[in-house]
Amino acid sequence: MIRIIDSIKDSGFLKKLLDRSQFEFEEVNKVVDEILFNIRERKDKALKEYTLKFDKVEIDDFLVSKEEIDDAFENIDDNLKNDLLRAKENIEKYHTKQLKSSYTLHDGEDIILGQIIRPIEKVGIYVPGGSAAYPSTVLMNAVPAKIAGVKEIVMITPPNKEGKIKDSVLVAASIAGVDKIYKVGGAQGIGALTFGTESIPKVSKIVGPGNIYVAMAKKKVAGYVGIDMIAGPSEILIIADEHANPKYIAADLISQAEHDEMAASILVTDSQKIAKKVNEELKIQVEMLERKEIIKKSLKNYGAIIITSSMNESIKIANEVAPEHLEILTRTPFDLYKQVKNAGAIFLGEFSPEPLGDYFAGPNHTLPTSSTSKFASPLGVEDFLKKTSLIYYSKEALMKSKDSIIRIAEDEGLTAHANSIKVRFE
Amino acid sequence: MIRIIDSIKDSGFLKKLLDRSQFEFEEVNKVVDEILFNIRERKDKALKEYTLKFDKVEIDDFLVSKEEIDDAFENIDDNLKNDLLRAKENIEKYHTKQLKSSYTLHDGEDIILGQIIRPIEKVGIYVPGGSAAYPSTVLMNAVPAKIAGVKEIVMITPPNKEGKIKDSVLVAASIAGVDKIYKVGGAQGIGALTFGTESIPKVSKIVGPGNIYVAMAKKKVAGYVGIDMIAGPSEILIIADEHANPKYIAADLISQAEHDEMAASILVTDSQKIAKKVNEELKIQVEMLERKEIIKKSLKNYGAIIITSSMNESIKIANEVAPEHLEILTRTPFDLYKQVKNAGAIFLGEFSPEPLGDYFAGPNHTLPTSSTSKFASPLGVEDFLKKTSLIYYSKEALMKSKDSIIRIAEDEGLTAHANSIKVRFE
């Protein structure tokens, strides 16, 4: 079902895994360039053409109407609506702790320094359509933006062939406080948010997941607008000891594998027994699941059970992989996690499976993939804030510092910089 | 000396300014690809070849020795050394306020959620060589990394033809707490920090300014390693009223213009009188300065005095330009700055000129350029920290939430996600 590797003898799996990056396809590159160019030049007109071409539907008014949202609230299962509300509250509670305050430092009345922290004014959220239209994506992106105080949160998502958006996605957007929803997707949607069109407002930052066209478009517009990280394929790494439940481990590996064929599901364990049992469980569980074809391919491509000689070695491997999701299924998860240096999110103990984090617990599910947790962080309120420095010196304060500033400027050969200080004391 | 524009009649300058982005040169692109490939494959060997080719010097040992650092401390002017120490203290004091603590949220003993904030382990700082070898670059990049708690701060900077590094740069690195300094620059240096070579350690994040080859190399390795923002040409926008001193304004516009021919120096004022006087002052001051050729070209390319009909209009223009540096030279700067939405750093009043911030006051001089202050922030301690989420649910807690999680997962069509919850209660 899955490769089993002795960590000592690993002859390349970890390297293969760590090299698993997204390729840039020349063709995608060209298509996206053309789309962005057309949207910038021909705006709504081009947007309508691309929507017809890619989403197979003619859209006159991209804006989702109040009626459509009301309909979504009527159609949605009440339980599901309440689930989304509960999830939203949990996300809100967790993220509110991330708010940060401006600060100032005073030195008497002569020096005032500050850092002003404010929300980005306008933000665009991309939500995929089709089978990847997830209400959880909406909540995880919109709630932190709302908490940050973003004035205008715009969401775009591709319509289906009937020109509709999924009920749960509309409901999630509404309860999360999204201001406007537009039926547009793909690279053309990213272009619209970047350059603005007659109907879609230009924003300062674009966040959210998407297919390779969306990802490449985001990469290309980065710098004109801010973007969140470009996410790679999803990953889970589970550290387990002999006390873990093989059934749970198998289910969690599989839950990651169902995302797509590039997803990586890895068990690292110092127990031969667990390795064997998990492999057996995988075989049984996979057959019962809807997405078994994807799961099998994913497990074959990047699935692995790595057998180590000690828990220390298991943790070393986890730190090297720096996984997006890390589950610790051992007797003492609260001791072990402190040794973990690199991970997007850590799930502790046998009743904290990864889907709990995807939907519900509160921490963000947008996490650094492909080893980037060595330097990157989960999406958070901070991604929707920006800072400005503040500098005030009185004449007396500048007087006391002028010689130092002039000397450093002159050492750097920037004599006009030195002059800007000098003219003030001539 | 400089174009004077009536804000109402502006027929394109602001647009030209806002479109002033960095072009991607096809040739640079190819060269950088080749360099990165060679460094990854042939490591130190390629590094030595490129150093000979570009820096015109044969380097056996890239590591700057203790003796070289000691020599720098002996050779440097004592006053300058103390200036750098004072600047370092100011930077430290300002940035220490940016440190952030991990947090946890408890719901009894059943739910523990957390955000662990930790330093990135290894960071590389790029410092340009030649006439752009600035000790202030070292301090502004290394001090926040040190405060964040980065364990290993590595600095690279190209050597001169004698294989040496500027004294003030070595002294700044030493007092800022840089752990290792290597004599290597260019795209090859960025490659070395990204992939690691026999002598240069692989890092997780690379920060610091550089020429177009360095910038393109950073852009290309982004994702494998973290990078800071790719900086565009520098900018200053000064808002002045009739009470401002034209001499100071001219000096400050010029100090920005001396950086390079693409730098933008803009005065926005509601006073015709000030506009006229500043233009006269520019003519006088420019002639007295060493870098007058660069200054003249820069003022011609992107310099402007924009005359507005009111202070409100001046602020509106500033918010649209979203300048890297904003000086407010009016009678009531402390009232006005609150209306500024977008700026990298704001300098208040006539004794807070921009070079004060470049070298000395404490806030970082690495600031968002090219209107990116609409979504981006000054470099800070945060850029050297990373977060990991923590999730623990007890059996009871998961039990209470399981139906919600399962319903959302099933709405999303991710049945293996739902299964990962279900198996725990079978």
3D structure, described in words:
Chains A, B: This is Histidinol dehydrogenase. Chains A, B: InterPro entries: Ald_DH/histidinol_DH, Histidinol_DH_CS, Histidinol_DH_monofunct, Hstdl_DH. Chains A, B: Substrate binds at residues 234, 256, 259, 325, 358, 412, 417. The structure is a homodimer of 426-residue chains. By secondary structure, chain A is an alpha/beta fold. Chain A folds into three domains: 3-21 and 233-362, 3-Layer(aba) Sandwich (Rossmann fold), CATH 3.40.50; 26-227, Nitrogenase molybdenum iron protein domain (Rossmann fold, 3-Layer(aba) Sandwich), CATH 3.40.50; 394-425, no CATH class. Helices cover 46% and strands 17% of the residues of chain A. In chain A, the strands form three sheets. In chain A, strands 1-11-10-9-12-13 form a six-stranded parallel beta sheet, with helices on both faces. In chain A, strands 6-5-4-7-8 form a five-stranded parallel beta sheet, with helices on both faces. In chain A, strand 12, helix 13 (333-336) and strand 13 form a beta-alpha-beta unit. In chain A, helix 2 packs across helix 7 (186-195). Chain A is globular and about 85 Å long. The mean pLDDT of chain A is 95. At the A-B interface, helix 4, strand 3, helix 9, strand 13 and helix 14 of A face helix 4, strand 3, helix 9, strand 13 and helix 14 of B. Strand 14 of chain A pairs parallel with strand 13 (345-348) of chain B, so a sheet runs across the interface.
